[in-house]
Design goal:
Blueprint (H helix, E strand, L loop, with lengths): L1 H7 L5 E6 L8 H10 E7 L2 H10 L4 E6 L2 H11 L5 E4 L12 H14 L1
Parallel strand pairs: 1-2, 1-4, 2-3
Helix pairs in contact: 1-2, 4-5
Length: 115
C-alpha cells in the first residue's frame, strides 16, 4: 500500500480505498503516507480501520465504516475529479466482506465497470 501511494500520489490526488480487519501490523507509517499523498480516504469496516481512524481524523477527508465494494466505489466516484487516482489497496484483511483477495479485486473491477 505504501509503495503504491508513494508511486502514484505525487500530486496529492489519490482517493484511497483501504482498511478492513487488522493483521497485527503497524499503521503509523501508512497513516503518514496517506496524509502526505491522499486527498480522500474510504475505509472498509474492520479493526484495522478502527486503528487508523484516529490517526487520520481531522487531517484528511474521510468516509468510514463502508460495508460493501459497491458503496466504496460509489463514494470514490462522488468525491473524485478528472485526473484523480482511485487506489483500492486495503492493506488489511477483508474476510468479513469478501471470500478472498481475488473476490475483492473482481468486485472492485465489476463496480467500476458498472459506473
Amino acid at each position: 500500500v505504501r509503495a503504491a501511494i508513494k508511486r502514484f500520489g505525487n500530486d496529492g490526488d489519490i482517493i484511497w480505498i483501504g482498511g478492513g480487519e487488522d493483521k497485527e501490523m503497524q499503521y503509523e507509517a501508512l497513516a503518514q503516507d496517506v496524509l502526505a499523498h491522499c486527498k480522500y480516504v474510504i475505509l472498509f469496516e474492520g479493526t484495522a480501520s478502527e486503528i487508523m481512524k484516529p490517526m487520520l481524523e481531522g487531517k484528511v477527508e474521510m468516509t468510514t465504516d463502508i460495508g460493501s465494494m459497491k458503496e466504496a466505489v460509489q463514494k470514490a466516484h462522488e468525491v473524485s475529479a478528472t485526473g484523480d487516482i482511485v487506489l483500492m489497496s486495503p492493506g488489511a484483511a477483508s474476510f468479513n466482506m469478501f471470500k478472498n483477495e481475488f473476490d475483492r479485486g473482481e468486485q472492485f473491477r465489476e463496480e467500476v465497470r458498472n459506473l
